[in-house]
Amino acid sequence: MPNDATTPPKNMRFGEGDRVAVLLPLPLAGPYDYRLGLGQEAALGDFLRVPLGRRVAIGVLWGRGAGEVDQAKIKDVLGRLDTVPLPELSRRFIDWVSNYTLATPGAVLKMAMSVPDALLPPALPHPDYVAAETQPAGLRMTAARRRVIEAAWAPLPAAELAHIAGTGVSVVKGLAELGALNPVVREAQTAAAPDWRRTGPCFSPDQEAVAGQLRDMVGAGFAVAVLEGVTGAGKTEVYFEAIAATLAQGRQALVLLPEIALSAQWLERFVARFGAPPHAWHSDLTPARRREVWRDVAAGRARVVVGARSALFLPFTDLGLLTVDEEHDASYKQDEGVCYHARDMAVVRARLADIPIILASATPSLETQANILAGRYRALHLPARHGGATLPAVSVVDLRATPPARRAWLAPPLVDAVAETLGAGEQVLLFLNRRGYAPLTLCRACGHRMQCPNCSAWLVEHRQSARLQCHHCGLVVTLPPLCPECGAKDQMTPCGPGVERLAEEAIARFPEARTAIMASDTLTGPDAAARMVARMEAHEIDLLIGTQVVAKGHHFPMLTLVGVVDADLGLSGGDLRAAERTFQLLTQVAGRAGRAERPGRVLLQTFEPQHPVIAALASGDAARFYAAEAAERRAAGMPPFGRLAALVVSGPDAARVERTAAELARAAPHGEGIEVLGPAPAPLAFLRGRHRRRLLLKTDRRVALQDLLRHWLDAVDPGAGVRIQVDVDPYSFV
Q: Is the pTM of this model over 0.85?
């Protein structure tokens, strides 16, 4: 039965007959009580095999058993895994995240145990085989056996020997069993570790001053440094100095990146500085590599890890430094399962470990800026681009005055700028944050719109792959030849542009330019991203058309023009952070231009040239924009000056969802500094086959938000098939 055990003092050990609390990586209410059997011993953090119903599960010894369950009902632990225990700091972090997000501790533990196979003993390596110096007496020689023995003059894997000899692997294994081949086990190759002694780059006085302050933070306890600098200021190379100082102390370092699959240039810089790559952690790794990385982190062999947000839950044994690059990026927020923001949880992880953390960004989030003003974070600033490069000039193209031609998306000023840049032998980036060919397909005859049957969303046309796709649930269908509503033939037409449609126009206008699309659809993993970056660096591409993936830290020396095709995209929709997010994204995109000797320029196509975001980008007055944005949020009591928590009620039965949402509304908390909005249909009221209603709890910062939420949720039973998901500090409002 579950108990309410919390993390007890470290190093507590248990022996035969003791009740222990075992936390399982499942969404259960808490740890379950088990009993250590005959001759068994275990300590906090040990991984234990335990019975769970009719199956065997692996959990973590979390503390002393609660003792509330009848002794006769307690089951015995089946055994302890011979592997490194989950560190105390990992257990404290899991408890903290669970308490803050209101997720069950088992659900959080599951993220820390994301590679169950890593807990099992490593498989023995497959041996190579070499011919024995003396063949065994009485060996019956066949043509196939002779070919294998002749090929085995040097150690080779069984499969390779069989291939060379033109026979099956069973022949090779049979010869080994008879003694005609000797097995040879290769020693595991140890990858080179990053070398902190290597000489770093030559810094400007500003860079050296900031690098010195970061070095001084290492080993001096918990502190948060915000490394702010214009795009191209060399922030990465500067925080590498803190990593070097961490390695010099023999400790581990973790760097979080928002798009680890697009980190080719970051990895090149790292290898140039330290002579060896870091351990990478992201979803595109093979299962075997994920096992290796998890084990290396747990054993302390991984000195530097660069990873996506889930890397926070790896079992570091001696973490000495945390860095969150592009800390403002919205992809650090996980909106499903355990809802958490990796930047904020990284700060907590650093505080628990009493180590420094660096938050790096050219456009720090409003939350981070508020913490600087409150004195909780330390601001470090790099005011200029590295190597004498200058920031690009930003111009606004008013689409009301100079609209594109009919069925085109590029206005005349941008067309002229592209032609001029290509004529000078330089590269162009056209940015449109919309994947596919067109965001909507409708019938010209009856107006029917192609909608996802599982979601309240339009199907996006991807013409290059000849499909319609839902970007929320992943449904893929072919474009129908007849309208599903009226049966009209050849009347389905795309509405609006995506990057594929923009590429179609660009190729028609600039047929001599070598054009490519850079979007999450065209980059199928780290290798594809690296190839695309290499082609840009080698100037094998003249005109790049991309979505937001092009904004993440890429350095292309010959890229001198950035054209933002729809600068208004993202400014509307009722999102709390719409303006801030758009300003950050467009600033990052603009920062791709003119990063070397050649000056750059940026053209923003817009119907709203007076919008605060557009005006701030054109004037370069980021401080004024953030001040105005902060004043609006403060007046409304919105984050970071107030607290929010979203409750999303969902289920396959619309009536039950509506009923549960209404019960939540009736049980809603009241009091000073507390406001509940809703229930209301979510913007995506139907998602992956589930109906959805939202409620929003808004409080001032003095209110104990988590306690309020717990009491509220305890008052309502959602019933079968209905789920209530809690999102503390929501970033998405769909």
A: yes
